[in-house]
Amino acid sequence: MKVSYNWLKEYVDITATPTELANKITLTGIEVEGVSRLADGLKKLVVGYIETAKPHPNSDHMTICQVNIGAADLTQIVCGAPNVAAGQKVIVALPGARIAGNEKIKKGKLRGEVSNGMICALQEIGFSNDIAPQSYDTGIYVLPADAKVGEPVFPYLGMDDAVLDLAITPNRADAMSMHGVAYEVAAIYGKDVHFPETTLTEDPDSQIADYLTASVVNATDAPSYNLRVIKDIKIQPSPLWLQKRLWNAGIRPIDNIVDVTNYMMLTFGQPMHAFDYDQMASKQIAVRRATANEPFTTLDGEERTLTPDDIVITNGDVPTGLAGVMGGLDSEITPKTKTVVLESAIFNPTLIRKTAQRYNLRSEASSRFEKGTNKGIVLQVLDAAAALMAELGDGKVVSGVVSPTHLAATPVNVTVTQAQINHKLGTTITIPEITKIFQQLHFDVTEDQGTFNVSVPTHRWDIAIAADLIEEVVRLYGYDRIPATLTASASTPGILTANQRLMRQIDQQLEGSGLSQAISYALTTPEKAQAFNLNAAWQPTSVDWPMTQDHQTLRMSLISGLLDDLAYNVARKQTNVALYEQGRVFVKDDADQTRPAEVEHLAGAVTGIWQAASWQQKEQAVDFYGLKGIVEQLLHNLHLNDGIQYVATETRRNMHPGQTADIYVGETLVGFMGQIHPQVAQQNHLAATFVFELDMTQLQALAATPVVYQPVAKYPAVTRDIALLVDRHVQHQAIVAAIYAKGGAFLQDVTLFDLYEGHHVAPGKKSLAYTLTYQNANDTLTDDQVNQAFEKIKKLVVSEFNAEIR
């Protein structure tokens, strides 16, 4: 349920910010999944007035508009929308504006004519096709005449309104309406609700009996079924205030009749349906079960084969609606509709749920019928909807209501005692406190010696027994106020520190990558202690009275110990070894420092064959890129804010000068990786061996982003391949970083799939081939969008890397 903050404030006097309100609602039992605004991420969108519009001389579909945006001079904008015309007030994106998809608007030329901005459709400023008004599907949106030129468009479109997304559980279907949420918020803050009164004026010269009659074959299928008729209706777009409330709630405006039915559903939680009276071809409406294999075409144009478990609305014979789920194509409201039959009913929730599931037609209406609606306001909603339709459509409400069945809903009386409440909750809530809570909930309550007789109004049909009242008391009393108690034999629970949790995660990842954990001595020889220092300026620490000459200096790197472990295994014919170690190194920044600093490090070493040969694959030796993949995945899982770079280096002693890279996070050196020098490998009787070492103390101190779930994109990705011929010294990492920086808002991934040096490639050159993946989480990408972004990347690699595109 999407709740408009501004709309809610019309019903309850609240001063809390939307975020504060969301937190308060969540604490009292209804989770708020998020607070958002349609204007989030957008800027420099203003109201413009089109003074003149003339055809583009070099285009058969573009228009050159002179637009007043509140500046001294008119602004020329070229627009391709078919409905653009002089005299309109429109949405203008100024140069420098940000519109949907984080796209930036710039000055430019279209077919030789200057265009200083953009006249926008709603979809171009973030509205999805599901909520943008149907009448503006193929063109720009026209603002109302009272919109002030030069002012931001967000207030006019309701885009500055905060929308709270409530995750409604099945037991709280009362909160699937603005009135229900208003009652909830009023109870939380101890406020009153104030809903506007409905004034219905009936036409004295017409009676509903002259228009139609109705019958319900089985009252259990539709225990309350009520109809009104509105005549002389003019079908037209709804006023902007109504459209704003619908699209902020995630519902698409259609016209003034359909919109009113949806508006009433949002306001009261009561689904409604409107039929075109003239298309029904009968004055008789009958509610019955469908016959076996009875055909019916729903509003979506699909023909369904019905079963006897479906409830249908008929014109006396032929179905015109699938009750509580979807109307029929033959009776839908069209621009030609003059007379409307309006339905407000209660249907059997079990049958509605099964019908919606059977035909995969779950909707906002069926969801509410399944979970329950307020039985006490069915006729009130019918009157309110009829009055609003007549007002918005310049029509008249025919006198009278047809109600073949009617349900007289009355408050439910439930009794609970103070002793029951405090026994269940372990509290000592007083009688005045309990009474106040029930009054905040707008329940009528009387108390006699600790016994509460509570009259629950019809808008809280979820409350029926004493346990329900106890739940209401604890919600508003505050879960955080319930006293915490320990069991008599309570023990101290063990917990892991943040560092311990992180290292356990790293252990799992490295072991999953095929490495085994090793533990080495912290004391080693002076030569080995300094062999693979991360920082060449570090000074060693030696003990005064070593037990042996091989254990006299504290290690400053873990790699030497891992190489000893590899040599030990290789000497015993275990030539394919992959090890990692997590531990402390001991470093001093200055030789005069008395006590060394203890720093957490993580290192790995692999040698031999990484992938054994089999009938379906060749043997694969350990190489630089295999180890780099393990390190990359490890660092990726830390979710660091700053970018990670691998910078080639030839300065590290004991490392191969052509296959070694320093690892930076932002500007911070956090480690290195690569192949050990062949001479060092030979001294340890090892084949080609690759190692890495990371400063975990540094990494844990860097800023990281919490992991936040991102929904799987509903729209397909688009890929483009590009092959580049560049100088041999150009780094792959630099190319990828540049592509990401200039790739546009929809670039999701850059993958290297081919590297070639040799025949057919000039000396000193190499060929790199990449796959670029584009995806828009909110809409389907067009070829033009992808091609424009791809062309920018082509120009980028040519200009920055002197690349030749193959």
From TrEMBL:
Q: Which CDD domains match?
A: PheRS_beta_core (cd00769), tRNA_bind_bactPheRS (cd02796)
- B5 domain residues are 409-484
Keywords, A to Z, come to: Aminoacyl-tRNA synthetase, ATP-binding, Cytoplasm, Ligase, Magnesium, Metal-binding, Nucleotide-binding, Protein biosynthesis, RNA-binding, tRNA-binding
- Per UniProt, where does Mg(2+) bind? 462, 468, 471-472
GO BP, sorted A to Z: phenylalanyl-tRNA aminoacylation
InterPro entries, alphabetized: aa-tRNA-synth_II/BPL/LPL, B3/B4_tRNA-bd, DNA-bd_dom_put_sf, Fdx_antiC-bd, Fdx_antiC-bd_sf, NA-bd_OB-fold, Phe-tRNA-ligase_IIc_bsu, Phe-tRNA-ligase_IIc_bsu_bact
Q: Where is the TRNA-binding domain?
A: 39-154
Q: Which reaction does it catalyse?
A: tRNA(Phe) + L-phenylalanine + ATP = L-phenylalanyl-tRNA(Phe) + AMP + diphosphate + H(+)
Q: What is its EC number?
A: 6.1.1.20
Q: How is the cofactor bound?
A: Binds 2 magnesium ions per tetramer.
Quote the subcellular location field of this record: Cytoplasm
| Cofactors demanded by this protein | Mg(2+)
What is any Pfam family matched here?
A: tRNA_bind
Ligase listed as a keyword:
yes
Can you supply one Gene Ontology CC term for this chain's record?
phenylalanine-tRNA ligase complex
Q: What is its main location?
A: cytoplasm
Question: Can you tell me which family this protein belongs to?
Answer: Belongs to the phenylalanyl-tRNA synthetase beta subunit family. Type 1 subfamily.
The record's NCBIfam families line, in alphabetical order, gives: pheT_bact, YtpR
Protein name per Swiss-Prot or TrEMBL: Phenylalanine--tRNA ligase beta subunit
- Species the sequence originates in: Loigolactobacillus bifermentans DSM 20003
